[in-house]
Amino acid sequence: FPVGGDISDTNAMIYLSQFGYINKSLSQFSSGYFNRDQLSTAIADFQSFAGLNITGELDEETKATMSLPRCGVKDRIG
Amino acid sequence: YGASSRSKRYALQGSRWRVKSLKYRISKYPSNLNHGKVDRELARAFGVWSDYTDLTFTQVKSGSEQVHIDIRFEKGEHGDGDPFDGPGGTLAHAYFPVYGGDAHFDDAEHWTIDSYRGTNLFQVAAHEFGHSLGLSHSDVKTALMAPFYRGYEPSFTLDADDILGIQKLYGKKTRSSGGSSGDGSSSGSDNTPKLPKVPTAPGSGGTLCKNASVDTIFRAEEDTHYVFKGDLYWKLTDDGVAAGYPRKISDSWQGLPGDIDAAFTYRNGKTYFFKGPHYWRYVGKRMDGDYPKLISEGFTGIPDNIDAAVVWTGNGKIYFYKGTKFWKFDPAQRPPVKSIYPKPISNWEGIPNNIDTATVYHGYTYFFKNGQYWRFDDRSFAVDNANPKFPRPTSKWWFGC
Asked: What's the pLDDT band for B2 if we cut at 50, 70, 90?
């Protein structure tokens, strides 16, 4: 994951999918298509879970949290 | 979007083990740590959960026996379709009981023990074993089961949220002792050093066995403890009283006198010794500059002739004890000792006045007096009410008499 580098929308989608906030397989992101509302909702869910300000936007605090070392298990299961 | 209306708390995946005596195997060790130390740290990580439940964990070292949890340190793709990503990022992952319970750790991480450097093996392992037992990620930021690594916490304790979660799955602890035998180390509720009864060479542990009162016990490097008494010292390791002791203090710590009042090793890796109005500073056994110096100059606010000093596991600050009083010394503060000190030792519920020494061991702080010792429960701020009760004889539990 781009540890320390800037996190793009696509990176964020991959991260949110990997940890259970979006039900999409990673391969679907390679086509570059994704729906902005879906991303915003997933970001808001992540912000709520991580105790951040819930904005639905990929703000600096959210990027910083996505860069933290962490456990590979999904945050949302089923 | 607004704040989530659901209060934050632990999460259960939905499966758990039907039995409470679980076996585990470390089938692949990390490439950068001593196997014995890994055994101990992972046993301690399992102990986090057996402290609050009747779960027991036994390490199986023989190759063929069936285990519940298999543990491996791997790099990149390692056969489960969930490749690791090198340093940082994902540190480890584990499988819930319904999926087998195994725990995998990214061997590209710099795993460390009792250090602010790298990634703390104990904390990450305890978290992954929470998954192996059926806990999912918690959205309580201070919980062990929160998904993000928060760095090394020298005074780690399980969060109330984690305790609620694991007791939801396996019930509260009813049995006093947790560990089980098996052919490997076991994790139970009592982290007191389990010193095997080793035959002491004449004069080695014998002196300590006859009279277990000491001048000081202090932790030097990682898990090595020294006992000072008069002009002599002994080395304690996890395996008992080390052979070839006692030795003369001045033979090993050049320039250091006997009859030391107190000693502790701070997180800067330096060891401080106190006697009368003076203190000395060493790195390992090498004097670290021009000593002795006056306590009144180096530790302003702390009196001469102290009884004990320890870096308390509760908050990582330095505490000094003398007679019926104690002082908190925070080098980052000005002044380092607040005007509200000294305070009565009776605040430390169950700890007597006029103690001999205090030390830390495996995340607990221990107090010693007249051949007996107490383990302190930082969370309840009182002597631990484990069974058998404290105080316990130092000679038996620490010196292997």
From this structure: very low
Rounded distance, CA B62 to CA B390, Å?
36
User: Which among B154, B98, B91, B99 is positioned nearest to B127, based on CA atoms?
Assistant: B91
d(CA B238, CA B178): 19
CB count in 10 Å sphere of residue B208: 26
Chain A residues near residue B75 by CB distance under 8 angstroms: none
Residue pointed to by tokens 């090394």: B152
In B, minimum Cα distance to A74 occurs at: B137
The answer to whether the beta carbons of residues A49 and B139 sit under 8 Å apart is yes
Per the prediction, chain B carries an average pLDDT of 86
Burial of B220 per CB tally in 10 Å (0-12, 13-18, 19+): middle
Is residue B221 annotated as a catalytic residue, yes or no?
A: no
Q: Which residues pair with B364 in a beta bridge?
A: B361
Task: Among A54, A71, A76, A77, pick the best mutation site for testing chain B contact (most B Cβ within 10 A).
Answer: A71
Question: B174: number of CA atoms within 13 Å, CB side?
Answer: 3
**3-state secondary structure labels for all residues of B30-78:** CCCCCHHHHHHHHHHHHHHHHCCCCCEEEECCCCCCCCCEEEEEECCCC
Average pLDDT estimate for B312-336? 89
Task: For residue range B116-152, list pLDDT tens digits in order.
Answer: 889 999 999 999 999 999 999 999 888 999 999 998 8
Name residue, tokens 């052979």: B243
List the catalytic residue out of B109, B128, B153, B297. B128
Nearest-CA distance B312 → chain A (Å): 28
Total Cβ atoms within 10 A of residue B192: 19
